[in-house]
Amino acid sequence: MRNLTYFIATSLDGFIADPTGGYGDFLFEGDHMTAVFEEYPDTLPSQARHALGIDAPNKDFDTVLMGRATYQVPGGPPSPYRHLRQYVVSSRLSTTPPDVQVVSDPLATVRALKAEPGLGIWLCGGGRLAATLLPEIDELILKVHPIVLGKGIPLFAGDFPTARFAKASTRTFDTGVVFTTYAKEEVT
Question: Which stretches make up the Bacterial bifunctional deaminase-reductase C-terminal domain (predicted)?
Fold first, then answer.
């Protein structure tokens, strides 16, 4: 069975974007970015992969799931992750390129995707979608940036059940960014 991984940048106070959905306060230079390029190239937008000369086969993910606001980031391309199967959760979005599928039931979609063979499924945002999918999230990879936003879009937004995760690994970079991986603990 495939895993759903919430791989996301967050501030020290738990926000994945500012109140307008912007993420310009996060660090985009430094040794932590080298780690992203080398270890998580599947999570780079197709334009960035092309600019960096990355055309290797996907190694961790073959599918990306995102909320409408994440998909419709201002200035973003209409097909941001052409190297992945792309799903956008929305009840309002109607026009997308043929390689971007709009779905309205994220839990049913993830459960069906998990039953298929393949690589992992990457949840790349947003906070409300993450809260909805929390029962299905198998792994969290948090890229914690050394900033405090004070307000914005939280890592998980809305009502959601309690879930426990066990720390699997932590890496600290010279930039001050810390990657921490958590695996879902099974309830006994």
Answer: 4-179
Q: What domains lie within the chain, and their CATH numbers?
A: 4-184 (3.40.430.10)
Q: Which 8-state DSSP code applies to residue 42?
A: G
Residue 182, amino acid:
Y
For 29-40, what is each residue's pLDDT tens digit?
999 999 999 999
pLDDT band at residue 188 using 50, 70 and 90 as cut-offs: low
Contacts of 66 (CB under 8 A, 6+ apart): 86, 87, 88, 89, 123, 124, 125, 126, 129
Could you give the 3-state DSSP secondary structure of residue 188? coil
Using DSSP's 3-state secondary structure scheme, residue 25 falls into coil
pLDDT digits (tens, 9 = 90+) for 108-145: 999 999 999 999 999 998 899 999 999 999 999 999 99
Nearest to 1 by CA among 141, 112, 125, 131: 112
Of the candidates 145, 183, 179, the one whose C-alpha atom is nearest the C-alpha of residue 164 is 183
Tell me which residue has tokens 């809305």.
Answer: 158
